[in-house]
Every structure is written in structure tokens, then in C-alpha cells.
Design a protein that fits this description.
1061 residues; 7-stranded mixed beta sheet; Nucleotidyltransferase, domain 5; MutS, DNA mismatch repair protein, Chain A, domain 3; 36 strands
């Protein structure tokens, strides 16, 4: 029999095969007759009966009666075990009387709640909302950490990493379990039960999507990091700290992040006092996509903030915390047009005073090394210069006085950076200076126009299906899709830039095969913008390194293909004038930086073929058949991103790695030889040499009944576990050899980690060049997509000018045309011709006759032309549009107590206040939401303002044909006097006989004084009896007028209702 004496009073967390510790004084053992007969029993123990061979018995003896030595199967007594304490028994510990049995205390549950009597292992249902007692204090290290983090981040939902799980405790567990629809349980701490819930770490992205993206909650991720401890204790300890706070605007590389859209975090910096907004309306904006590193800043007016919000669609907005208590601040009125998440942060000390920003004035202990400081300010046309605090080179002297708008922009940049630092914490990247956007370089599209034209989203509950973006998108890369979306919401106003883009589109339209070759390359290119950000945030792995290398190689292939194509064209057509078309392509490729050295460096360092390297999987192979189990909380490697690294470092990358791998290879050969020799010597074909965390090195038999006979007789093999079909032993020689293999493998892993970190630093050093090349590829992708779109839908290249004209021949609306084509119908094109002498068109006609489509397609064609695309028309000549406004359709806003007519008037007022001579305005049925006289008066006032003050190019669709006389109708073609620049156009219906009609959809010069509303009503299916009353009523009103109804009421009833009765 094997008897083990346990010294000390602590409880052992592992169990030996035949010995189980119950308390510090008593020991329960199992005795077997087979062992008694072969080895004999101890004189100090009672003899077992002969029936023990069939059934084991349990005998309780006093601790003092047990022998003080352990006799292994070899018969040689072993030395007694050392004290459980590393440095011996503590001095303050009182001696234990091992001879006396301690008095057994009765548990009293008279005054305790029912929950205190439930053990952790019981399956009873926990309370729905357990709370920790106010009087109790945390005693365990984990509970103290959790309570401390909850106190530090009260605005966040705390998820604490515990082994393979993320867990939540206390009241937050109740809330999180409800939000995630997971089971709520409880945990016993300090004698009280606290609420608890958790989920595996593999589900973190799934639940972050629910908490952050859908519920708009902040989540603090508390990760665990290993702490170096003495190997003698055989205990793994972890330090737990908040590594990151996940918010909707600070997503990095989560799987639910849409690769085709930007995830912007926007900081807005207005003046803090509401009374100063009238005199200082300038607002600073700064926004960043943390997943790509794209960082921008801008100055704008307070009234233009809603338009910027509609253009950027930020996931989160950051304001100064001083605005939190100023609900009457005008900035909050900009958020009423959408659903935005508002966050607050304390501005950094650097932004507290903008009057003294000299480099020498910066304190050495700056609040953050990531914050930008305003060193030089220029005009809005040239942009601003934002430098880092730790830059070694500064301007010799700052300007005398920065503008208020530049100060607000700098404050927004610093506010955004401070918020990122507070939430990204250990993942905070180094930020470059933001790219300044000037309001003069981009077409301004207001909020209502982006929604009315359905540029990004259609009216189908925010779906992208049917939107302009979804119809024209032919991009290959995700970066190209994001760039196209940005361009559509902010087209360029630079004629040079637009012509350069269109020249590139024309270049690819004329070279179909060359275009297809480039598309094949783009299909293999990764999203380098987000890859670079993963390296900057410290979340990259071997796959990211391989993707960087592969993408650089594809860039080189792109250059080679272009050079071959150019050489081929020169050979085939030496004097061909098309050779000049390469100028636009050369200008784009010239911006590509050569990064072949970085690619070669990565290629020589990493190996992705798992069959070409040395593997030591046996060292980490777990034995699931052993009886001994490890603590699951210590089995997970940390930090988390280590698990995602796929691939390994080339063993020949450095001399150090080569030597280590040679040593490991020799040890592996020695292991194989030892395993083969043991199999032959002990006649055990199923014998394998294995290791597992917690058990160390051991010998495993998969068919123990057949192969264990000789091993059991050899004293060098000590059994540590046995099941029905397997058995495991400890063997000293394998333990020593396996320890050498494990130590060498750890050294190699550490060396490979150093190489990986070195390569990551090299990628970070080239991050700017990588992003610049990625921008070039995105522009190339968008240009090719425009070429594909133009060939598919027969678009033409527009002519751009500054003459104030807008001439379109047979223009079409791409979204409507695509919808009609899918249903087997054909789109009817229309032409529009406007110049400074005829820049305002009044369009009349029946409902559903194409007026609104004409208005929308006019605006869409202007957008497509200024993003660099071809346009859906036979011919297009467009003067640059600086601002685009629309008043199309309206619906009531009950939440903000706005009627349909009020919404319509707000949009009209915004247009009349902001439109310029270079603007394009489309207005549909202004004044329709009130009485005829009031609506007519408002429509005429708006028309007069546009014609005489704004002088914008405008299409004005209306059912008030009386407006023609009010602007001085001249032969139903144009206005007169102050309205000499007004022209009349109309649409009509065609009678098909038998009470049927068709829409012509073709706009012609003239005025249509009949809206044909009854025909549309009949087409909608209104009952015939109601339609007869409507026809009689319309006939009576045309003969007598609406003012004579009261005087001739009986006549009115007899003429309208009585004939039907």
C-alpha cells in the first residue's frame, strides 16, 4: 500500500491516485487486497479482510497514527516531503495539536438568508437580482480588482477576463445577462451571494456587437496578464487591468465592423458660452476612423454642422464636458435631425490657453505624448499645420495671432485625441497630423439633399438597396468602396482635380483587357489601411505581416503590367496619339512608393508553410485520459492576440535562431530514439512520450492492459494515472529530456517574438508610405469602377466649366433606370438647358408624370460629374456647383412637434438663406401643405427670392400654374421684368381611348394648367361612385369658382351629389 504523509495545514488542489485529503487532521485512504498480498501491510495499520480484493473499504485513522515515510514500489523509503511554505512555517502560526480531534461546530442558519445555505455546486435557481451586502468587504484578490474597476469606470459595463471566459458580477451581471440573453447565475463571496454571468472569449465580438453597436453602451475590457512567480510554487498568477474601453466610435478590428463603411469618431468644438455663438459662430471639427487611421479636421459655421453630420455619419460625437450642463447651447440643435451618440470628455490642459503656443512654452511633463499642438496657422485655403508635442523640429516663430476658427479646429483635434487616449488606453496609436479639409474645395450638400436624393441610403428603412451608391458601385476593394462613399457626399469643386479623374476613367474605358488585368490584381490586394492600423495598435499577427508582403508584391506587379502595356502600345502604334493618355496613369503611379525592401525583409523572416519548419507539438500536447485535471483558469495563454498568430519565423532568419533550431532538432531526434527503444525494451507498441501542463513529462500507454506488464515491474516507472484503457507513468530520463526540449522551445518562441516585434516596428516606420500607396490603389479602384459603370450603362464624359451653364441632353436617373430595367421597362430621358439668362425653370404637370424624377436626376448628374465619373446622358456641359440644395418631399416630425408644412418651411428657409449664384437648387411643390392662397403666396415669394437675390440655377416644380401669370407670362415660354430669367416647362398625359391614358414623361416648353389629379385617383382604385362625385365637383368649380359655394349651396349639391343619388 502507498501511504503519503502530508505536512502543513493547507489543502492540496491535486489528488493522488489512492489518497484523498479531507481536512488537516484526518486522512481517508483506499486499501486493496492485491497490494497487501504483494507488498505486505504496515504494522501501524489494520489488516484488510480477504473480501477487499473484490470491493475496496475505507478506514479512518488518526493523523498521528500514520507512518512518517513513503515506501514506493521499489521498496526504498523516500525522503519526507518539505513544508508547504517556501520559507518554512510562519512564526506567528500556532502549533497544531495533531492528537486531538477539533470540536465540530454546528452551522446555525437561524438568522441567515436562504441564499447563504446554497453551495456553489448546487443546482438551485439563483435569485434574479442578487446584491452584495453593504457591510461586507471584498476579501479575494479578484473581487477587489472588480470592485476597483467598477469604481473607476462607473459609466462602462465591465467584462473581466477569467481564464477562457469574460465574466460580469454584481448588478451589472443582471443587466448584461438581460441585454445578451444569457443565463444569470451567482457566486459566493464574503458569505454573500452576488449575481454573475459570463460567456466564452470566442463570443466576445458577437456580444460586443450587441452591447456597443446596437445598445450603444461602453464596455471596459479587463484582460489578464501573467505575473512571473517562483516555479517551485507551481501556481500561475495574473494581473488584471483595463486594457481598453470599447465605444461605438473606437472600434478597431472587430469582426462586425463593416469593411465598406467608415466608422468615424467626431469631435466638435464650438465656443462654450451660448451667448457667444452669435458673434463667434465658428466651429472646429476633427474626425478619425480608428480602424483605418484616416484623420481629418475642418472649420465650419455652426449652421452647417447638421450638413457635416449627414455627410460624415459619425458613430459617436465628442464634446467638452463643460457643455453637458448647458442644454440651451445652440450646438445641441444640430443633433435634432438624426440619432447621434454624444460623449463628453475633459479637454487637455494644452488646449486651455491658445494665446501662448510657442514651442518653448510646452512643459516637459505634457499631459499626453499623443496630443497635437497648434504651431502655425494659415488661411483656410492653405490649411493649418498641426505638429506633435515631441517633434524635434519646430517653426522658428509662431504667427502673431491665430484666427478663432483655427483655434476651434485645434481644440477639436486635441479633444478628439484626449478622448482616444482615455478609451484606447494600451492600444492608443501614434497619430499623424490630421488632413485639413477646406470648405471651398468640396461641394456642400445639405442634410435634406443627402436624404432626399438617397445618396447612401434609400427610403426603405435606411437600407442601401436602391440608393445611388448601391447602383453605381463597381469597386473591387473595400478601401475603394469607402472612398467612393466619401466622394459622393463631398464632390470636388476643383476643375483640375475633376478633369484628372475623368481622364483616368477615359483611359480605362479605351483599354478593356488592360482594365481586366488590373481588376484581377485588385482582387488580391488587402485592406492596407486597416492592416497598418492593426500594427499601430499592437494587434497584428503573422497573417497581417504576410498580407503586407503580398500587397507590396501586387503593387510591384501593377507597375510591371503598366510598363509592359505602355511598351506594347509604343511598339504596335509608334505615332499613336493615344500615347498621351498615359499621362494621367503615370501621375497616379508616380505616387506609389517602392517598398520592395520591406517586402523582402518580411519574406526572409516569416514562413507560412507549416510543413517546412520544425514543430514541437508533442511538448504542448494535452493528455485528456489522465485522472488529474488542471485548473481551467490557468490553461489560457495570455495576452489574447498571441492565439491568433498563424505561421512562424524562418529558422534561418538569424544565427541565434538557427543554432536554437539545430539544438531542438537534435533533441527531437533523441526523443524519437528514446521512444523507439522503450517500445522495444518493454514490449509496449502503444507507448508514447508526452507532456501536459501541470503534469510535466510522462509516458502514456493507449492500450495499457496489453503493454503495462513490464513497465509495472520496473521501479523506474512511477504510475500517476490509470483509466480503463490507458495508463501514464513518470520516467526520469524522459522528464530531463522533455524539460530540455520545452526550455529550448520557449527560448525559440521568445526569439521569434522578438523578430516579429522587430518586423512590426519596421512596418510602423513605413506606415505613412503604406497608407499613401493604399490611397493610390483606392483612387485607381474607383476610377476603374467608373469606367466599368460607364460601359455598362452608356454614360458620357461631361464637360466642366465656370460659365454658370447646365446643359444636359437626354439625361437619365441611374437608380430609376436600373429599377425600370429590372422590371422590363424603359426609362424616358429628358433634357435640361440652363444658362445665366435662363437659370430658373418652372415645371408644371400632372402627378406621376416625371417632374420629381427630373429634379432628382439633375442633381445626381451634377454629383456624378464632380466626383469624376461619367454621367447618364448623351451630352453634358456643367458649370461647377458649389452647393447643392433640395426640397423634395416632406413628412411630419411628431417627436419634435413639427408638422409636414413646418418641416417644408424650415427646408425652404435654409435654401433661401444659403444658396449662391453657383448653387444648384431643386424645389418640389413648395407651399402644398397649407391652403391654396397661402401656399401660392409662399411659392411666389420663394420664387422671387431665388430669381432676384440668390440667382441660383433652380428647377421649381409646382402645381400652382397661377405662378406663370404672377411672374409675367410671355407666350407660355418665359417670364418678364424681374423674372426675365424664368422659363416654363411642363409634362403631360396622352389619352389612350376608352377612358385610359398614358404618361409621356417627356418635358416640353410650356405650361400645363391641368394636373390630371382625377386620372391618378382613378388609377389608384378609388371607387367609381366617389370618382363621379369628384368629376361633377371639379366641373362645377371650374364654372362657378370656389367663392360662390355658400351662396349657391343647393345648386352645388344638385350638380355634384344628387345626380349620383
Amino acid at each position: 500500500m502507498a501511504i503519503t504523509r502530508l505536512a502543513g495545514h493547507q489543502t492540496c488542489n491535486k489528488s493522488l491516485p489512492n489518497v484523498f485529503l479531507t481536512n488537516r487532521l484526518y486522512l481517508t485512504r483506499r486499501s486493496y487486497a492485491s497490494e497487501q498480498s504483494s507488498r505486505g501491510g504496515s504494522q501501524n495499520l489494520p489488516q484488510t479482510s480477504s473480501s477487499a480484493s473484490k470491493k475496496s473499504t475505507r478506514t479512518k485513522v488518526k493523523y498521528s497514527d500514520l507512518p512518517g515515510i513513503y515506501v514506493p514500489p521499489s521498496g526504498v523509503p523516500s525522503a519526507p516531503l518539505k513544508s508547504w511554505f517556501a520559507d518554512g512555517r510562519p512564526e506567528e502560526q500556532a502549533p497544531i495539536d495533531i492528537a486531538a480531534k477539533p470540536a465540530r461546530k454546528r452551522r446555525s442558519i437561524k438568522n441567515k438568508p436562504l441564499s447563504d445555505t446554497i453551495d456553489d455546486d448546487e443546482s438551485q435557481t439563483p435569485p434574479k437580482a442578487p446584491k452584495v451586502s453593504k457591510a461586507s468587504k471584498p476579501t479575494t484578490f479578484l473581487s477587489r480588482q472588480i470592485l476597483s474597476n467598477l469604481k473607476r469606470f462607473p459609466h462602462c459595463l465591465l467584462l473581466t477576463r477569467v481564464g477562457q471566459f469574460y465574466e460580469s458580477y454584481f448588478d451589472q451581471a443582471v443587466e448584461i445577462s438581460h441585454l445578451l440573453n444569457i443565463k444569470l447565475t451567482s457566486k459566493k463571496w464574503n458569505g454573500d451571494r452576488v449575481a454573475m454571468c459570463g460567456f466564452p472569449i470566442l463570443h466576445i465580438d458577437k456580444h460586443l456587437k450587441t452591447l456597443v453597436q446596437q445598445e450603444k453602451r461602453f464596455v471596459a475590457l479587463c484582460e489578464e496578464f501573467p505575473v512571473q512567480t517562483s516555479p517551485k510554487l507551481n501556481v500561475k498568477e495574473f494581473e488584471r487591468r483595463i486594457a481598453r474601453i470599447v465605444t461605438p466610435g473606437t472600434l478597431i478590428d472587430e469582426s462586425f465592423l463593416n469593411p465598406l463603411e467608415n466608422n468615424y469618431l467626431l469631435a466638435i468644438s464650438p465656443v462654450t458660452e451660448p451667448a457667444d455663438c452669435a458673434t463667434l459662430p465658428e466651429v472646429g471639427l476633427a474626425w478619425i476612423d480608428v480602424s483605418t487611421g484616416e484623420f481629418f479636421s475642418k472649420q465650419c459655421k455652426l449652421e452647417n454642422v447638421p450638413d457635416e453630420l449627414a455627410r460624415l455619419a459619425p458613430r459617436e460625437i465628442v464634446l467638452e464636458d463643460s457643455l453637458c450642463k448647458k442644454a440651451n447651447h445652440p450646438i445641441f440643435s444640430a443633433f435634432t435631425e438624426g440619432s447621434f451618440l454624444i460623449s463628453y470628455t475633459t479637454p487637455p490642459d494644452l488646449a486651455a490657453d491658445h494665446t501662448d503656443l510657442a514651442p518653448n512654452s510646452v512643459e516637459p511633463a505634457s499631459p499626453s505624448p499623443h496630443l497635437a499642438t497648434l504651431e502655425s496657422l494659415h488661411t483656410a485655403d492653405k490649411g493649418i499645420v498641426l505638429l506633435q508635442l515631441n517633434d524635434s523640429q519646430h517653426l522658428s516663430a509662431p504667427p502673431a495671432e491665430p484666427t478663432p476658427a483655427a483655434i476651434r479646429e485645434s481644440t477639436a483635434v486635441n479633444l478628439l485625441t484626449k478622448y482616444l487616449q482615455d478609451n484606447l488606453l494600451e492600444h492608443m496609436p501614434r497619430l499623424d497630423a490630421p488632413l485639413h479639409e477646406s470648405a471651398h474645395d468640396r461641394m456642400q450638400i445639405d442634410l435634406h439633399t443627402i436624404q432626399g436624393l438617397e445618396i447612401r441610403e434609400s427610403g426603405l428603412e435606411g437600407s442601401s438597396k436602391g440608393s445611388l451608391l448601391s447602383v453605381i458601385k463597381r469597386t473591387t476593394t473595400s478601401g475603394g468602396a469607402r472612398l467612393l462613399a466619401r466622394w459622393l457626399c463631398s464632390p470636388s469643386t476643383s476643375t483640375t482635380e475633376i478633369n484628372s479623374r475623368q481622364s483616368l476613367v477615359t483611359f480605362f474605358r479605351s483599354r478593356l483587357h488592360f482594365r481586366m488585368d488590373i481588376i484581377n490584381i485588385l482582387n488580391e490586394v488587402d485592406d492596407v489601411g486597416r492592416l497598418c492600423q492593426r500594427f499601430l495598435l499592437g494587434r497584428a499577427d503573422f497573417g497581417d505581416l504576410a498580407a503586407i508582403r503580398t500587397t507590396i508584391n501586387f503593387w510591384a506587379s501593377l507597375k510591371n503590367i503598366c510598363a509592359q502595356e505602355m511598351a506594347t502600345e509604343q511598339i504596335e502604334s509608334p505615332g499613336n496619339h493615344r500615347f498621351g493618355e498615359w499621362n494621367s496613369m503615370d501621375a497616379l503611379l508616380h505616387r506609389l512608393t517602392n517598398l520592395d525592401e520591406l517586402s523582402e525583409r518580411i519574406s526572409t523572416a516569416i514562413v507560412l508553410d507549416s510543413n517546412s519548419g520544425i514543430e514541437a507539438n508533442d511538448i504542448s500536447e494535452a493528455n485528456e485520459d489522465l485522472d488529474i485535471q488542471d485548473d481551467p483558469q490557468t490553461m489560457t495563454p495570455v495576452p489574447e492576440k498571441e492565439d491568433s498568430r498563424k505561421g512562424f519565423i524562418n529558422p534561418q532568419f538569424s544565427e541565434k535562431l538557427a543554432n536554437l533550431n539545430d539544438i531542438l532538432q537534435k533533441l527531437e531526434i533523441e526523443k524519437e530514439k528514446m521512444e523507439s527503444d522503450l517500445r522495444l525494451k518493454y514490449d509496449a507498441p502503444s507507448l508514447t512520450l508526452r507532456s501536459a501542463s501541470g503534469q510535466g513529462m510522462f509516458i502514456h500507454l493507449s492500450r495499457s492492459k496489453r503493454d503495462k506488464k513490464k513497465l509495472d515491474l520496473d521501479p523506474e516507472f512511477y504510475s500517476i494515472g490509470e483509466s480503463l484503457s490507458t495508463k501514464s507513468y513518470i520516467y526520469r530520463d524522459w522528464s530531463q529530456l522533455g524539460a530540455s526540449i520545452a526550455e529550448t522551445s520557449i527560448t525559440i518562441t521568445q526569439a521569434e517574438k522578438e523578430v516579429f516585434e522587430q518586423l512590426s516596428l519596421e512596418v510602423i516606420e513605413h506606415a505613412r508610405e503604406l497608407r499613401q500607396n493604399a490611397q493610390v490603389i483606392d483612387e485607381l479602384d474607383v476610377a476603374i469602377s467608373f469606367a466599368v459603370l460607364a460601359d455598362e450603362m452608356k454614360f458620357v464624359r461631361p464637360e466642366l466649366s465656370e460659365d454658370g451653364c447646365y446643359n444636359i441632353i437626354n439625361g437619365r436617373h441611374p437608380s430609376v433606370e436600373m429599377g425600370l430595367f429590372s422590371s422590363g421597362r424603359q426609362f424616358t430621358p429628358n433634357s435640361v438647358s440652363m444658362d445665366p439668362s435662363s437659370n430658373l425653370h418652372i415645371i408644371t404637370g400632372p402627378n406621376m408624370a416625371g417632374k420629381s424624377t427630373l429634379l432628382r436626376q439633375t442633381a445626381v448628374i451634377a454629383i456624378l460629374a464632380q466626383v469624376g465619373s461619367c454621367v447618364p446622358a448623351d451630352y453634358a456641359h456643367i458649370s461647377i456647383v458649389d452647393k447643392l440644395f433640395s426640397r423634395i418631399g416632406a413628412k411630419d416630425d411628431l417627436f419634435r412637434d413639427r408638422s409636414t408644412f413646418m418641416v417644408e418651411m424650415l427646408e425652404t428657409a435654409d435654401i433661401l438663406r444659403r444658396a449662391t449664384e453657383k448653387s444648384l437648387v431643386i424645389m418640389d411643390e413648395v407651399g402644398r401643405g397649407t391652403t391654396v392662397k397661402d401656399g401660392l403666396a409662399i411659392a411666389f415669394a420663394a420664387l422671387h427670392h431665388l430669381a432676384t437675390i440668390n440667382k441660383s440655377r433652380c428647377l421649381f416644380a409646382t402645381h400652382f400654374h397661377e405662378l406663370a401669370e404672377m411672374v409675367g407670362n410671355n407666350n407660355n415660354t418665359c417670364g418678364s421684368g424681374s423674372f426675365h430669367n424664368v422659363r416654363f416647362y411642363c409634362s403631360d398625359v396622352e389619352d389612350a381611348g376608352d377612358g385610359h391614358f398614358t404618361y409621356s414623361y417627356r418635358v416640353r416648353p410650356g405650361i400645363n394648367r391641368d394636373s390630371h389629379g382625377l386620372k391618378v385617383a382613378r388609377l389608384a382604385g378609388i371607387p367609381s361612385s366617389a370618382m363621379d362625385v369628384a368629376a361633377n365637383t371639379l366641373s362645377w368649380l371650374r364654372e362657378n369658382g370656389s367663392s360662390n359655394i355658400q351662396d349657391n349651396y343647393n345648386n352645388f349639391l344638385q350638380s355634384t351629389v344628387n345626380p349620383i343619388l
